[in-house]
Write a structure and sequence with these properties.
mainly alpha; 3 helices
Length: about 90
């Protein structure tokens, strides 16, 4: 194999590796996007459930921004999975 053929073979090898890496990158991005959509949907379900429960009991205070919503929501979420959806610390067993 002469120098020219060796260089061509190496370029083909690098191109194949690059194609594999690009495909893997696409799969990882799709997986991350899907996971973020699931988390967003779960957060909306939890917020809706908390609001519905509060309407039937103590009522819902005026919430003017996302920080106030999270502060109001935080003590109402008990399950670890629910708390993780909002990046709240898990509560210790009482």
């Amino acid at each position: 194999m002469n120098q020219r053929e060796h260089v061509r073979a190496r370029i083909e090898s690098v191109d194949e590796s690059l194609a594999r890496l690009r495909a893997e990158r696409s799969r990882l991005l799709a997986r991350a996007t899907q996971a973020e959509r699931k988390r967003d949907t779960f957060q909306k379900i939890l917020i809706g459930a908390a609001v519905l429960a509060a309407v039937g009991q103590e009522g819902v205070p005026q919430l003017r921004n996302p920080e106030e919503l999270l502060a109001w929501l935080e003590p109402r979420l008990m399950r670890p999975r629910e708390r993780t959806a909002f990046d709240f610390q898990t509560q210790r067993a009482r």
